[in-house]
Amino acid sequence: MVLSHAASDSDGSIHSTFASRYVRTSLPRYKMPENSMPKEAAYQIINDELMLDGNPRLNLASFVTTWMEPECDKLIMSSINKNYVDMDEYPVTTELQNRCVNMIAHLFNAPLGETETAIGVGTVGSSEAIMLAGLAFKRTWQNKRKAEGKPVDKPNIVTGANVQVCWEKFARYFEVELKEVKLSEGYYVMDPQKAVDMVDENTICVAAILGSTLNGEFEDVKLLNDLLVEKNKETGWDTPIHVDAASGGFIAPFLYPELEWDFRLPLVKSINVSGHKYGLVYAGIGWVIWRNKEDLPEDLIFHINYLGADQPTFTLNFSKGSSQIIAQYYQLIRLGHEGYKNVMENCRENMIVLKQGLEKTERFNIVSKDEGVPLVAFSLKDSSCHTEFEISDMLRRYGWIVPAYTMPPDAQHITVLRVVIREDFSRTLAERLVSDIEKVMHELDELPSRVIHKISLGEEKSEANSDNLVVTVKKSDIDIEKQRDIIKGWKKFVSDRKNKTNGIC
Q1: What is the mean pLDDT of the chain?
Q2: Cα dist. 502→332, 392, 447, 495, 496 in Å?
Q3: d(C-alpha 495, C-alpha 492), whole Å
Q4: Alpha-helix runs per DSSP H in 369-467
Q5: Helices 427-446 and 388-395: crossing angle, nearest 10°?
Q6: Is the peptide bond before 410 cis (omega within 30 degrees of 0)?
Q7: How many CA atoms lie within 13 A of 149 on its CB side?
Q8: Exposed, middle or buried, 65 (CB in 10 Å: 0-12/13-18/19+)?
């Protein structure tokens, strides 16, 4: 006689995850569950939900590295449990960070001797690096003003309106006035002359961007340096420059070695760069390098000894992983100048392929420049019927993540799409993207117009129905603010439609 019994839910040995009770209940969202679950079930359920994320390789919005060699992946996993701050326990990891700092400093032409140690630190990204550089500028300015018996309550920093949000964070968090040079149509980076005109005795530094987030363009750091040298001579000030090379710092030395933007310019006192962008490392590593020791005030550096030996530290956080530092060192010695140059040249050539493909459609204006970060920023020549936001939305049906956004003041009436060309974006993918964009444009042409701008001399009115958003305005009222309202109206219209239907609007 065969004996049998009913298995309990707790008998995990005979259950697959999909035969268990764990797939019949919702995952906790606000409170930790009372009971445990098998490791296999936890993995499977979380992994399944993560399938709904976009494909990182097709995320063309991001500058951040999404592919590394398997050998480097192994190094990352083998060191993922090392806390970098334990320098005495992990002295080799500390040494690797110092090697990276020295290599990057020499790459940026820091005035160092053959055996002289560079001044710099690894960070969790360029945001932290910029905070540290800004604090150094602020403290240097304060110390100088105090020595002269002058007030120190109104520091300011001059940037372009195209800076990344971390600069706004620095200004707000550390109480520094942010003076922005406004943009204009066709000129989407900081104007060096306008920037120097805004400098006063309270300016702690001028920040230049080597690779604008908006269109990849390099700002003219050389011209800024020359103009600021003259102003410093006239006024007796010594206003310095910081270069935010988050995106361009690992591009310019290999593609444009003759371009003067780094420590070859006397007023450049510090530079930040993102290792996790074109430094070709996964997210979580940035670097800030100072020209020399005098540019980093000693009173900002802390010394601790409760982890072993005396350890100097200048960071905003304390604990952090070692794996990204090790990965950066791997890339620097694995690729060398030759490898980095080859990667950047490939990115530039694939950028040109994409740009030429878009130009052949005769539907777009190219906003980005050939010299700069390898990306293509483009806008519709005719947006009277459909918008860049629609293109961005419909490209997701093909798996592509391509952002659409408006420019900062005073060019906020310009809307663009942007494709970032990373190491793992091949020519085949570039050609496929052009093909999919052409399909999207054909589909949009077949749809009723959702935005119609009627320019008349009559009264202003707005009308909307299930298929169209009709905007009629006075000709005299076509200004920047009105165009912003039109864009906002369209975005709200699309959002409302999405809430009512599961299809593509």
Answers
A1: 88
A2: 47, 17, 17, 12, 12
A3: 5
A4: 388-395, 427-446
A5: 120
A6: yes
A7: 0
A8: buried
Burial of 70 (0-12, 13-18, 19+ CB in 10 A): exposed
Q: What are phi and psi of 225, to 5 degrees?
A: -60, -45
Contact 206/241 with Cβ under 8 angstroms? yes
**Which is nearest to 421 in space by CA: 370, 462, 385?**
370
Residue type, 57: R
Q: Which helix (H) or strand (E) holds 70?
A: helix 70-78
Give the contacts of 140 (CB within 8 A, at least 6 positions apart). Answer: 204, 295, 297
Q: What is the tally of helices (H) and strands (E) in the chain?
A: 12, 16
Position 85, amino acid: V
Q: Do 53 and 396 contact (CB within 8 A), yes or no?
A: no
Average pLDDT over residues 432-439: 98
Residue 313: beta bridge partners? Answer: 302
Bridge partners (DSSP) of residue 303 are: 312
Maximum separation of any 2 CA atoms in the chain, in Å: 105
- The tokens describing 313, both together, are 């530290």
pTM: 0.86
Q: pLDDT: is 28 or 156 the higher one? A: 156
Mean pLDDT for 193-219 is 97
Residues 260-277 have pLDDT tens digits of 999 999 999 999 999 999
Whether 188 contacts 418, CB under 8 Å: no
> Span 490-504, mean pLDDT?
52
Q: Residue 455: pLDDT above 70? A: no
Q: State the pLDDT at residue 475.
A: 41
What digits encode the pLDDT tens for the residues 307-333?
A: 556 677 888 988 889 999 999 999 999
Is residue 44 within a helix (H) or strand (E), and if so which, with residue range? helix 39-50
Q: With H, G, I as helix, E, B as strand and everything else as coil, classify residue 40.
A: helix
pLDDT of residue 309: 61
Strands ordered across the beta sheet of 268-274 = 119-123, 286-290, 268-274, 241-244, 203-209, 156-160, 177-181
- Under the banding of pLDDT at 50, 70 and 90, the label for residue 489 is low
Residue with tokens 């980076």: 189
Per-residue pLDDT at 457: 38
Contacts of 104 (CB under 8 A, 6+ apart): 118, 120, 249, 273, 287, 289
